Automatic annotation (TrEMBL):
<dbReference type="InterPro" id="IPR003661">
    <property type="entry name" value="HisK_dim/P_dom"/>
</dbReference>
<dbReference type="Pfam" id="PF02518">
    <property type="entry name" value="HATPase_c"/>
</dbReference>
<keyword id="KW-0547">Nucleotide-binding</keyword>
<dbReference type="Pfam" id="PF00512">
    <property type="entry name" value="HisKA"/>
</dbReference>
<keyword id="KW-0067">ATP-binding</keyword>
<keyword id="KW-0812">Transmembrane</keyword>
<dbReference type="InterPro" id="IPR005467">
    <property type="entry name" value="His_kinase_dom"/>
</dbReference>
<feature type="coiled-coil region">
    <location>
        <begin position="320"/>
        <end position="361"/>
    </location>
</feature>
<dbReference type="GO" id="GO:0005886">
    <property type="term" value="C:plasma membrane"/>
</dbReference>
<feature type="transmembrane region" description="Helical">
    <location>
        <begin position="289"/>
        <end position="309"/>
    </location>
</feature>
<dbReference type="InterPro" id="IPR029151">
    <property type="entry name" value="Sensor-like_sf"/>
</dbReference>
<dbReference type="GO" id="GO:0000155">
    <property type="term" value="F:phosphorelay sensor kinase activity"/>
</dbReference>
<dbReference type="GO" id="GO:0005524">
    <property type="term" value="F:ATP binding"/>
</dbReference>
<keyword id="KW-0997">Cell inner membrane</keyword>
<dbReference type="InterPro" id="IPR036097">
    <property type="entry name" value="HisK_dim/P_sf"/>
</dbReference>
<comment type="function">
    <text>Member of the two-component regulatory system DctB/DctD involved in the transport of C4-dicarboxylates. DctB functions as a membrane-associated protein kinase that phosphorylates DctD in response to environmental signals.</text>
</comment>
<dbReference type="InterPro" id="IPR003594">
    <property type="entry name" value="HATPase_dom"/>
</dbReference>
Amino acid sequence: MLGTFRQSRIVRPRGTGEWGKRFALLLLVAVAVATVWVTNTWLTERFTENTRNRAQVRLALYSGSVVSELQRASVVPLLLSRDPLLIQALDSGDFSQSSQRLISYVDEIGAASLMLLDNSGRVVAATDRAQIGTNLRSAPFFVEAQRSNETVFITSRTEPGGFAFTYSRAITADRRRAGVIVVGVDLAKFEKSWAGIADAIIVTDSEGQIILSTEPRWRGRTVDEALAVRSPPSAIRRALQATADWGALPPDAYLMGEAVMRNEARIPFRGWRILSFTTYVSVRERVNAVLALEIMGFAILLAGTFYLLSRRAQSRSRVFQRETAELRALNARLQREIAERERAEKNLEVVEQTLAQSSKLAALGEMSASVSHELNQPLAAMKTYLAGARLLLQRKRPEEALSSFQRIDDLIDRMGAITRQLKSYARKGGDAFEPLDVRSCVSGALSMMEPQLKRRKVTITRTMPRQPVTVMADRVRLEQVIINLLRNALDATRETAEPQIDVILSAGETAMLTVRDNGHGIEDPDRLFEPFYTTKQPGDGVGLGLAISSGIVNDLGGRLTARNGHEGGAVFEVQLPILSQDMEAAE
């Protein structure tokens, strides 16, 4: 465009007035060039910094995702090494059900694979049945697990050129090594998700070796070796020539002949680091768009100046036509750049919607186990009511049978409310809470547990205050906590000659709900609220009830505690913030 401006100055000076006009024209051109140059320099620095900040934010998110995946998988070997069924299989040598048990675990914990090895290094159970019978005595994860009493993490190369990440831990039985449990960590899924963006992402270990990369051929190399691939001096010179007309900042590196900026962050795990290489394409497009607008503005100003300075109609017409053609070209170029930018924004919106949907599906997947556990109780109660209604109809007592059917209808409504909790879990908001009287929630829970209580002939002692005890909560979730505590009390008093359960509600600074039984008490209070921890026989429970109840009480702003009573039995206490009259009026 600057060359066009110089060609457009066709008016020759005639006399002292013409020299003044010519000087004004040259001053205008100089101002335009200086403005474009300053704008180019300032916008390049600003947009480059913005792009670098966004890249650093992405690196922080990616680093957090990798650490979260590693931390989640690190506790799995410890849990599985204490699985009594796996220990029994290693002792007896009967592994007919072991692989199926590992397969049932893999979907719950989100691991890539699970393997069970005996002391000789032979794979006796695995989620990939093709691995069963393979001898991995010399595998690093087996050797290191046998040497250590803790969980060990191993990174090993695979035949296709990638890396496998595993946690392993020795299984001990009667103070002797019985085998090794191996948990594979699926970090390759991050490579697939990172490949959908424009940045090149690299994860290196403490030795600088690339273990994860969006470019498969970089794995196993160092960062310098990866950058040297297909980057000869001629490519660098071409990149310098391509960016010399717009860029004022020196590039951080050259990736396959293209100038890129390099960002690096630390992953808080074994000295790992994550790097990204971002091209300057977005910066170049945004700067050029602004420059095009400035050039177009100066072009319009110059066109008007040329029109006023032209004394001859023919010369004025030629200048006008030339400037009009230039403006049309600039306008078309600007429209193309705007269209490209709109397409890029639409693609970014699609990617963001896809990520948001994946996050929601992951959250719903985590809640599926919880909801299935919660539905078992209404289903058991419905089965009991149906059996009672059938017996009442056979004895010609239809009025009493109708009350059983009404209770079944209430249970169906409750199951619908439980399934609707999935939406509240997706919102993670407080709009599902309402002022509730804890006394009514206790009555509702006892009503649902009525068939089990009658069948067991348990003495229920209920102590309630006369005044309402109001809290902010979700009725279905609060009742579910009470039902879980009552079910645990029933199970604890199964072997007691005269079972008794006390339900005590008191109100002070907080609302305190106490459920006390005269059963066998709590064996391991420290592990009581851990997921999948249970003292029941296989098939009677999966150990999720108390973990779910603790999470619900925490969401309500309270605390669930457990201890053994002075006279035997277990005591569970639920503390919830009480809702005062002022707070209720504000709500």
